[in-house]
Amino acid sequence: MTGNGFKRCKCRQDGRELGAKCPRLRRKDGSWNPNHGSWYGKEEVPAGPDGKRIYLRCGGFASETDLITWYQAAGRLLDISDAGPEGHEARMEILEMIRAAHRKKAPMPEYEELHRKYRAGQPLQSITFGEYWATWVERRRRLKDIRESTLLGYISHWETHIREVLEKARMDRLFVPTVEAVFTRIDEKNAALLAARESDDPVVRAGVRGKRPTGPVTKQRVRATIRTVLADAEREHLMSFNAAALVKLDAGQKAQGLVWTKPRIEAFQAAFERRFAAERSAPVQPKKPLERFKVWLATPRPSPVMVWTPAQLGEFLDFAVSDRLYALYHLVAFQGLRRGEACGARWVDGELEERLLAIAKQLNNVGRTVQESAPKTRSSEGTVALDSGTAAVLRAHRVRQLEEKLAWGSAWVDSGRIFTRENGAELTPDWVSERFERLTFAVGLPPIRLHDLRHGAATLSLAAGNDMKIASAMLRHSSQSITADLYTTVLPEVALAAAEASVALVPRKIAVGEASQTAGLPSVSHRDHRRPTNSA
Q1: CA 296 – CA 69 distance, rounded (Å)
Q2: Domains of the chain
Q3: 85, pLDDT greater than 60
Q4: What is the pTM (predicted TM-score) of this model?
Q5: Which of 20, 216, 371, 530 gets the highest tally of CB atoms within 10 A of its CB?
């Protein structure tokens, strides 16, 4: 292609553009006037199956040389595609890319890159990660092949961490350093947050109040979100490899549960009082009155996963026994149900006389709504054996619920759930958690999450002498290794008994108490005894 160049201009006569007919375009000798008009070209492109003639018309070039160079580059790109219907479709796509580049006064597509994509069967036009993300989310919602709660988690990662870095990144140039930039940005925000906490300016400190740094586990989840999206893009041949799968991060280990011992409680209480005093004396006060419960809830704990001792659990249950949801707390504390499983439990799935409860449904907060779904995993669907005390608590709860049903009359909502609001409607899981935390604060116990009652149930089961297999079956884990990794917090009483049992296995001629009195004294054998000499 050379463009078959000609010149035209924007001059007007009688309101009409003269174009190629302007007399100023040529000199008196018939040669082109280099100081007037610009160069335009027109080349015919191979026709498609329908035989319709197709042209590439472009203009605005400063010189004929520029025109010829541009048309030669365009012709080289159009020659990438093969003959035939499929080749024609690709040629038309390349033609549109050439026209778009000319309109935007942008460089033409790179020949090597376009040639590679065509031979690899990949889409020729590049899209950004943000563009692909929008279509990916829409497709997931339409197909409903991902839990809504899981998809909301992905969207949260996008809005909080991914968007600002990857939104405009081209999919075909999404390499490992590009994805690593997401986590570099997270580290920068963490450093800024920690610096703001230590600032001498109270306004700066108030600006980060309640905010927490992004930890290694969350980083792992953000990477998993990117990897999931790019895996679909790779299957669609938008890219040749999944860069997120090659990004290395610090291992995100789940927090190990700790027991609320006396020293830990004292340290937490002191930290809470200091935090409350600082919040109350801050010059910048929140719009709502400062609430001790909120400050208590936000005070850092020794570990995100904390467990009560049996005495502390008993104190809570005694305090909450008159609460409407006492049976729910009791069930979670001793049978280890997840929050959503407890909220989704139905009377039709229970056999109180047989002391059995099937876990068939769960309720989850999805945005501002509550949705029912199957349990978390296939192994989570199972039947829980109830102790006689828990069965009695549920029977008493059933009597109370029937009384409420009579009181509400026709306004009663027959949801079929074991645990409901006063009118029979379904519970909101987040509200149940807050209710549990407020009861904990009211009784004066150290804070734990409602989910930590499940952790405590496993700990109690192991402390009672049940083996790991039984505890794993109660929690409905897919393998015993999951139970061993997550739910083996040792209660102080159990640890002390185990320590005494270990010492008792070793036969001794000297009692342990007597041995401790002589511990550290030098022992002198007959062989090593030497008479003192006068030598230096």
Answers
A1: 72
A2: 6-120 (no CATH), 129-246 (1.10.150), 258-493 (1.10.443.10)
A3: yes
A4: 0.66
A5: 371
